[in-house]
Specification:
EC 2.4.1.-, 14% strand, UDP-glycosyltransf_plant, 7-stranded parallel beta sheet, UDP-glucosyltransferase activity, globular, 41% helix, single chain, Rossmann fold, alpha/beta
């Protein structure tokens, strides 16, 4: 009798990447009861907050699936990091963990299972070398869109095959023709900011180059959402097979992984939403690291007053200069609001710190979402049929916003090219216009979002495109 197959998952440090990793792990386990998964947890202090509680809540689950997944904590490195050094040293930190991963796999290989391969996070491609040492295939789990994947591979090929320096695109008028996009890309506006910095671009594109050394790339997307991008990727013979496996989301809104204060906050928020009419509330939330300075906060506040819609606004102060902001680091935020704002909007608006985003988007009173366009947030909004007004901040979010607005016509624009490091303010007038557009009851965008919501859910069902794609991946391993 053949030994059960065991996959090793190596997520990037941080709760966001861990959650996505566990979602794909659960999907795979639900499809094959002979499959086992081991998740290796790297403890990078600057971004590891919350991972222990999340793992514990998952491990304590009574689900049969949880019995076939185990977690191994790799040795912790006790160092302090600013935000800048996180971006510069995370890659080096992952590389430094190679010996610890090798030790863990050596012990694992002594068990009664067959090591079937590594599934590594997009930032953990250094672990491909370890997989090679054990003679097993490696796969990448790409946590953003297929279109973004196509862009990254294209820019990497431009560098390595044509000697193109992508930092030249900064402040240029260049429009790039990328196979995974239908429309030309305005490079300076939507390329990830990392690509405009020499050192950051080199290290990042070196990571992307390693994607080509794998046996396949799992992408958290689905065929109906990104048919053009997926076709472009599959048509390129030098790109490994791409498996669309989404939309994979953590839709469990119970309180097992949040503390008692957050549970109470969630209860208060949902009670407030219960008192609002259907589709009447615009939700403003900018991710676990999104924040604005006082001047921009005042522009948002003025826009909300002028738009006149009910609102739920997740507002946080910027962290101290150079420091990382964590989801729980919400200080008192009311001091930066315009004088009298809370009095004038009492009853129609609620300003909060931490937000239970999934539960809010699922609530029938929420009719629009002003979002930073992180890929997980994008998929969550589509899943719940809530149209987005785009306001990207960093990473690949400008690219996601361009795709949503120009490529897919699934969102309205507030400012598609805004960057968090920019001193430029988005005016109250622009914000008000975006809020009014996204809150329209009957328009083509809302209808298209609802349609895409149904297609996303069907993709995961038996016979759906992502269901079939996961089956092909399991056959491969």
């Amino acid at each position: 009798m053949e030994k059960p197959a065991e996959l090793v998952f190596i997520p990037s440090p941080g709760i966001g990447h861990l959650v996505s990793t566990l979602e794909i792990a659960k999907f795979l386990l639900s499809r094959d009861d002979q499959l086992l998964i081991t998740v290796l947890i790297m403890k990078f202090p600057a971004v590891s907050k919350g991972t222990d509680a999340y793992v514990e809540s998952f491990a304590d689950s009574s689900s049969p699936i949880s019995q076939r997944i185990k977690f191994i904590n790799l040795p912790q490195v006790n160092t302090d990091h600013t935000e800048g050094s996180v971006r510069n040293s995370l890659i080096g930190f992952v590389e430094s963990q190679q010996p610890h991963v090798k030790d863990a796999i050596t012990k694992l290989s002594e068990s009664q299972t067959r090591l079937a391969g590594f599934v590594v996070d997009m930032f953990c491609t250094a672990m491909i070398d370890v997989a090679d040492q054990f003679g097993v295939p490696s796969y990448v789990f790409f946590t953003s869109s297929a279109a973004a994947l196509g862009l990254m591979l294209h820019v990497q090929a431009l560098r390595d095959q044509e000697g193109k320096d992508c930092t030249e695109f900064k402040d240029s008028d260049a429009e790039l023709l990328i196979p995974s996009f239908v429309n030309p890309l305005p490079a300076a506006k939507v390329l990830p900011g990392r690509l405009f910095v020499k050192e950051g671009a080199e290290s990042f594109l070196n990571i992307i180059k390693r994607f080509r050394d794998t046996k396949g790339i799992l992408v958290n997307t689905f065929a109906d959402l990104e048919s053009h991008a997926l076709h472009a990727l599959s048509s390129d013979a030098v790109i490994p097979p791409v498996y669309p496996v989404g939309p994979l989301l953590n839709l469990n809104t119970n309180e097992s992984s949040v503390d008692s204060d957050e549970a109470k906050q969630k209860s208060d928020i949902l009670k407030w939403l219960d008192d609002q009419p259907p589709l009447s509330v615009v939700f403003l939330c900018f991710g676990s690291m999104g924040s604005f300075g006082e001047d921009q906060v005042k522009e948002i506040a003025h826009a909300l007053e002028q738009a006149g819609h009910r609102f739920l606004w997740s507002l946080r102060r910027p962290p101290p200069t150079g420091k990382i902001a964590f989801p729980s680091d919400y200080d008192d935020h009311t001091g930066v609001l315009p004088k009298g704002f809370l009095d004038r909007t009492v009853g129609i608006g609620k300003v909060i710190g931490w937000a239970p985003q999934v539960a809010v988007l699922a609530h029938p009173s929420v009719g629009g979402f002003v979002s930073h366009c992180g890929w997980n947030s994008t998929l969550e909004s589509l899943w719940h049929g809530v149209p987005v007004a785009t306001w990207p901040l960093y990473a690949e979010q400008q690219l996601n916003a361009f795709q949503l607005v120009e490529e897919l016509e699934l969102a309205v624009e507030i400012d598609m090219s805004y960057r968090s490091e920019s001193p430029v303010l988005v005016s109250a007038k622009e914000i008000e216009r975006g809020i009014r557009e996204v809150m329209k009851r009957d328009n083509d965008i809302r209808n298209r979002v609802k349609e895409m919501s149904e297609k996303g859910k069907k993709a995961l069902m038996d016979g759906g495109s992502s269901y079939s794609s996961v089956g092909q991946f399991i056959d491969q391993i």
